[in-house]
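quick one, two chains, predict together pls
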Amino acid sequence: GAVVSQHPSRVICKSGTSVKIECRSLDFQATTMFWYRQFPKKSLMLMATSNEGSKATYEQGVEKDKFLINHASLTLSTLTVTSAHPEDSSFYICSATLGGRWDEQFFGPGTRLTVL
Amino acid sequence: GQNIDQPTEMTATEGAIVQINCTYQTSGFNGLFWYQQHAGEAPTFLSYNVLDGLEEKGRFSSFLSRSKGYSYLLLKELQMKDSASYLCAVNDYKLSFGAGTTVTVRA
């Protein structure tokens, strides 16, 4: 149980375009979902926390207009990277919890974004 | 801010034991997680400690001392497939990760 999927697993796009990444909890309802990014050989950095039906809470330094997060249902959250640039190239990982912020997080398989 | 330190790299022989230390200084504490991450993949859960002491789960054990801000992950009977990055993460108001320890298991 507690499986989280992400789609797409890899995406290559041109600079200036927008990319949407989906995160789904497959066999449970996720009250809270998290979005992380990870640079090569670096640790995961939390970008934002999203709760179903409310606005996402962004970490300091993360542009909310650049990284749009929508948590429309208890099983789906989306991250849209708007007007992507090469510096946005990264590994984006989502996670979901069964309960609130303090619960164990189940991670999706990640999305590798490459912006040309 | 959060400060979570762990060694960058460790190398060990197949069948041996390796201990990965993690020290932390965080404004709050609500548990410490250890995750395993293979290159290009998402982290997978290994262990969770919220009280002091040792938690054993098969070949993996994790220890926590809250007063010392210290944890370790012990990997026994190392196998080649254990070659991965091991992430220490502290649950404060958010999950804060260390940079990870890359473990290389050699035959």
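Chain B has a mean pLDDT of 93.
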